[in-house]
Amino acid sequence: MRRVYLDHAATTPVDPEVAELMAQILREVPGNPSSIYAEGRRARALVDRAREEVATVIGAEPAEIVFTSGGTEADNLALRGVLKAREGQADGIVTTAIEHHAVLDTASDLAAHGQARITVLPVDRDGRLSPDAVRAAIDDRTAIVSVMHGNNEIGTLQPIAAVGALCREAGVAFHSDAVQTVGALEIDVRVLPVDLLSVNAHKFYGPKGVGALYVRTGTRIATVQTGGGQEKGRRTGTENVAGVAGLGAAMRLAGARRAAESARQAALRDRLIAGISSRIPESTLTGHPTERLPNNASFCFRGTQGEALVVSLDLEGFSVSSGSACTSGNTDPSHVLLALGLERDLAQGSLRLTVGRETTAADIDRLLDALPPIVARLRAASGAAVPA
Amino acid sequence: MNEPDRYSDRALDHLARPRNAGTLAGASGSGADANPSCGDRTTITLTISDGRVQDVRFRTFGCTAAIASASVLTELAAGLPVGDAARLEPADILNALGGLPARKEACALMAIGALRAALVDARVRATA
Lengths: 388, 128
Fold this sequence. Notes:
The complex is a heterodimer of chains A (388) and B (128).
Chain A: E1 4-5, H1 16-28, H2 38-58, E2 65-68, H3 71-85, E3 92-96, H4 101-112, E4 117-121, H5 131-137, E5 142-146, H6 160-170, E6 173-177, E7 196-200, E8 211-215, H7 241-279, E9 283-285, E10 296-301, H8 306-315, E11 318-319, H9 335-339, H10 344-348, E12 350-354, H11 361-382
Parallel strand pairs in A: 1-11, 3-4, 3-5, 5-6, 6-7
Antiparallel strand pairs in A: 2-8, 7-8, 9-10, 10-12
Chain B: H1 9-16, E1 29-35, E2 40-49, E3 52-61, H2 64-77, H3 82-86, H4 90-97, H5 106-127
Antiparallel strand pairs in B: 1-2, 2-3
């Protein structure tokens, strides 16, 4: 049975062209980019090319790209780096209740150590933030506002252009975790007023363990880790040459395919949403009905529990995820689902389906055939009173 | 490669084909238990005659382990003398399922808790 992978928000398979490039580099380019002899220069050229590739896709200058070990490190560097650079002048972090843990837990950690005051803004039932709330939260001690572009669980897109504009007006650095949107949506920092933007290669068919932080020229940011001074001292450590080359290639490929591929995926997403809504009674779409990632269909099914949904679908050959998969024996529904104001029992039954490049309409139809009986069976077992 | 978190085939079979899901009308006893840490809950209803558990049904809102535990427990308890049913333990569920992932063993305890509550309820009702 061919498995159907519908968890592209978790990770994507590496593009064969990217994998081939990386393997070739690992085999043939042994040098350290900091060395001035031939092997080093060759490695340096690859890192430079990757920096240009990443910059080009988002309209940045190569010097504004800092390579990191992934999205989590990019988020950490943005928050910790800006706070450190503003030490003694500004310590406020304004963010939202549905950020990734890489942002929320970093902000909490800074606050716990007396290095920041944090303001966590609520979102509405669709997961949208009001720019007015950001405006109201900014004060003269605010150092940074961090609002994600597209939510990894529910797919809701935030009005980051509006938020960025008012941050610029207030003279506050604006960071956006764009891990779910880079490669999927057009992002051009020449027009988008964002100062820092987190990028993660494995979300767009690149390798795991490599990402980048875009840092707009003029943005004050201090280094978080100390060492040999690579990445202009902003992220020191010998460059992951094959990894950043893979990131660059994946970014270039994603950029070239973006318009056609995102439209194709959005059609599959809409087919999923319409099919589930019509075939499964009392299915609750989570996230914004239209302002959402092109690949995300997420639902809650009353009377079911997410882990049982995921395991049942796994048995039938589908790879999916849940924001309420009880894996530790002590798991609340995710902070994102709870922030929407969903009732706890409803939030327990969450299912996230995220399509990708290799997903076909036939895959969607298979899922639409497989899911309704699973939901019905779990509801029958739980005794949920749901009309047939 | 070893997959330590994998459910046993028997547990997965109970997820795919739950045995005795439902609620018995005219039950001799009914009992419930819950795992407050995750919100899972199980209700067991059963009938007793001639000192033996006859029919058993379960309702579970919860994860694979919670559903499989309650489902297999209905099979284990049916037909047992009441005293033997009351002595069923989580270990009996784990044996019957071929084990559960380590973090999920509390789910077997919840099913046992619901069964024991149902047996107590039946005794109370019988003497009322």
